[in-house]
Design brief:
Layout lengths: L1 E5 L3 H12 L3 E5 L3 H8 L10 H10 L3 E4 L11 E4 L14 H13 L4 E5 L7 H16 L5 E5 L9 H6 L4 E4 L3 H11 L9 E4 L1 H32 L3 H9 L20 H14 L5 H13 L2 H9 L7 E5 L14 H11 L3 E5 L4 H8 L4 E2 L12 E4 L11 H7 L4 E4 L6 H6 L3 E3 L5
Parallel strand pairs: 1-2, 1-4, 2-3, 4-5, 5-6, 7-8, 9-10, 9-12, 10-11, 12-13, 13-14
Length: 437
């Protein structure tokens, strides 16, 4: 079976590589010539555990190819996955220009039945626009070629994307014809050998499922952060509260961890886009508006905790452990660290940062705005405070004795609640976390 994947970003590259791992003949397409040439040389544009080796393996086996020319492969493939970016527009809605350009390219060049599958996260109604764009180009050519449009949203967690794709807990596919359904069943059958987790829906429902899923997870995070902030005021322990409510089978324990805000490429963008979709249809998503408001406020909570200990930060040195929005990725989109760096530098502090993977990305985003440490301990030399922002594994069990010697003032503010308050106090540290007085 031969397919094309348009877009070699996070979703497109993982999707194409994992399909090729199962024996599918995959051509990945991208308009950025430099990225395509690098991929042919084995240079991977993103950090994702396990992906690089899989790309090399399948490229060398001839099952995975890269090109800048979508038109050149359309006569050979049965399915075209559109995995191009849908960045938020100025008003928060999803920008569909790249999605629609893929559709127009397909319409200009297909000569046989083709299934066009939207893999990008797109608002409800996008498939209808894709279908119209393809048909418009066919009409301009004066030809009649059969095609179908389907929706196959991704549910990949950064840092675990390869496993998520190879062993999915569900695959959602929105289709309009039996022909499209059979093609998608054939493609995903290798992933369903142990447990059939393929869910077929109508196309609008598939588009909505992706937004609803991410918005629900974002809601759980913001809800728990709101509860954590109240726990601090009333003297409750948010960790005990989390365990108490998470043990209820109707609620469960996942995504109930308080922290210093969510970020990344999905949750912030998808929440905004769903709010905007509702507005365009005359409805207000009050819960999601609150989710977004709580999250934006939470990103500055570590700064305000720091100011309780050091009201005047001018001339002070603050160390940040963690820059990526979550562990096992170099993605800093909407990361809490960006908000903190901005607040700290405006307050006159010198900021020293360290992240196991995201240092290059930080340099690209922040330039010389911060000091880049060589390791986690280097970041704390002469620091007046240490802020734990991203819970990388190597930060879990540091040497408190070493840190106390290196830091000017042993103050640690834990944005992910990974440390034990009693242990820190015994080690001579001032310690604060989220949701505990």
């Amino acid at each position: 079976m031969k397919i094309a994947i348009v877009g070699t970003g996070y979703v497109g590259l993982v999707t194409g590589t994992c399909f090729s791992e199962m024996g599918v003949d995959v051509t990945c397409v991208d308009v950025m010539a430099g990225k395509i040439e690098n991929l042919k040389k084995g240079v991977i544009p993103i950090y994702e555990p396990g992906l690089e080796d899989m790309v090399h393996k399948n490229y060398n086996a001839g099952r995975l190819r890269f090109t800048t020319d979508l038109a050149s492969v359309l006569d050979d493939v049965e399915v075209v996955f559109s995995a191009v970016g849908t960045p938020p527009d100025e008003d928060g809605s999803a920008d569909l220009r790249y999605v629609l350009e893929v559709a127009r390219t397909v319409g200009r060049h297909i000569n046989k039945y083709t299934l066009v599958v939207t893999k990008s996260t797109v608002p409800v109604g996008t498939a209808r626009k894709v279908k119209a764009a393809i048909q418009e180009e066919l009409d301009k050519r004066g030809v009649s070629v059969e095609f179908d449009v389907a929706s196959n949203p991704e549910f990949l967690k950064e840092g675990n994307a390869v496993d998520d794709f190879m062993k999915p807990d569900r695959v959602v596919v929105g289709v309009e014809s039996d022909r499209a359904r059979k093609l998608m069943e054939k493609l995903y059958k290798p992933f369903m050998m142990n447990n059939y987790r393929l869910i077929f829906t109508d196309v609008p429902s598939a588009e909505m499922i992706k937004y609803a899923a991410n918005s629900m997870l974002a809601t759980r995070i913001s809800f728990m952060n709101d509860i954590a902030n109240l726990c601090e005021l009333v003297g409750a322990d948010v960790n005990m509260v989390r365990k108490g409510i998470g043990s209820d089978s109707r609620i469960g324990s996942k995504f109930l961890y308080p922290g210093c805000g969510y970020g990344g490429s999905c949750f912030p963008k998808d929440v905004k886009a769903l709010i905007k979709t509702a507005e365009k249809n005359g409805y207000t998503m009050n819960v999601l508006r609150a989710v977004e408001e709580v999250n934006e406020r939470q990103k500055s909570v570590l700064f305000h905790k720091l100011q309780k200990h050091i009201p005047d930060l001018s001339g002070k040195t603050v160390a940040l452990w963690g820059l990526a929005f979550k562990p096992e990725t170099d993605d800093m989109r909407e990361a809490t660290s960006l908000v903190l760096v901005d607040l700290l530098t405006k307050a006159g502090a010198t900021v020293k940062v360290y992240d196991p993977i995201a240092m290059t990305e930080c340099m690209r985003r922040l330039g010389d705005k911060v000091f880049y440490a060589s390791d986690m301990y280097d970041a704390t030399v002469d620091a007046d405070a240490l802020l734990l922002v991203t819970e990388w594994k190597e930060f879990r069990i540091p040497s408190w004795a070493v840190l106390k010697k290196l830091m000017r003032d042993p103050l640690l503010i834990d944005g992910r609640n990974i440390y034990d308050a009693h242990e820190l106090h015994e080690a001579g540290f001032s310690y604060e976390c989220i949701g505990i007085q």
